Amino acid sequence: MDTVSTLPSNPAQAPRTAVVTGAGRGIGRALALGLAGAGYDLGLVGRTLEHLEVVAGEVVDQARDAGVEPPRVVVVPVDVTDAELVVAAVRRLEQDLGGIGLLVNNAGVIEQREVPFAQDDVQDVWRVVETNVRGPVQVTHAVLPAMISRGSGRVVNINSGAGHRPSPAYTGYGISKGALARLTTLVHAQHGDQGVRIFDLAPGVVATDMTGGMPAHEERTDWTPPQVVVDLLLALASGRLDALSGRFVRAGADSVEDLLAHAEEIVRTDARTLRLTPYGPGDPLG
Question: What is the distance between the terminal CA atoms of the chain, rounded to a whole angstrom?
């Protein structure tokens, strides 16, 4: 049975608060500023306090330029791969923000070299897998109890098409994003009927320090504008796309209007998920 069709249609109202991991730079910074501009109180999480404090200052400046009251901003430096520190950080964020309505799992890394797996440093591959999977697993696990108790909450995993298609390099990154997609489907299947909504959001290729250092993008000119990613995140956060919980969307390719228009078909065909594709009606694994 398709689990989406059995979800409660009107989950309890989540607080207008958001926690963004990896918020000190790149896409995380852009998402944090976009959420703040939309009126969300923020928890900024990352490994480097100085970077987070700069973004917190930018949130305040942005609000003042717009002539509005700045949102509440809580800065928590933490390595998301450290389980005990993550639990303590989430407890603090829940207390200081008055609950976490939205979690954006953005923190992530990529291999140092763009080479096939046989030529790569396996320890570096594992570093990528551990950061990109263990981090979201631990932070999501820490926020779920309060979301379930309240009967509402949304999680957005910043994912990538690399988890769904083969690549000549960056093996650890591809493994990690495929695992992240499976986390999304499992949390949806296990906790969707308790008011939790979870999504994979691929940002496309945004110009950041990480992408700028990748040989694959040296001659790229068609970068995804950060605002396009922010707009799709805000649509997910608002609940407009709740019918697509457990599924994959991509900024720069998907519009909110198209996703809404095709939502019924996406759910009916079990599309936009990580799945085993049968070879035909007679496939015993179908």
Answer: 14
Residue 173 known to be catalytic: yes
- Calculate mean pLDDT across residues 19-43: 97
Which single residue is written with the structure tokens 């917190």?
Answer: 56
Q: Determine the Cα–Cα distance for residues 60 and 63; give it in Å rounded to an integer.
A: 5
Burial class of residue 240 in the structure, from the number of CB atoms within 10 Å of its CB (0-12 exposed, 13-18 middle, 19+ buried): middle
Listed in sequence order, the residues at least 6 apart from 162 whose beta carbon sits closer than 8 Å to its beta carbon are 170, 173, 174, 177
Owner of token pair 């700069």: 54
183 touches 203 (CB < 8 A) = no
Phi, psi of 239 (to 5 degrees): 95, -5
Residue among 56, 54, 45, 18 at smallest CA distance from 153? 18
Q: Which residues contact 206 (CB under 8 A, 6 or more apart)?
A: 26, 27, 30, 223, 224, 225, 226, 229
Q: Domains, the chain, ranges and CATH? A: 13-268 (3.40.50.720)
Two tokens, residue 33: 């500023």
* Whether the predicted model's global pTM rises above the 0.70 cut: yes
Identify the CA nearest to 78 among candidates 69, 89, 65, 93. 89
- Give me the mean pLDDT over the 251-259 stretch: 95
Which of 40, 170, 173, 279 is flagged as catalytic? 173
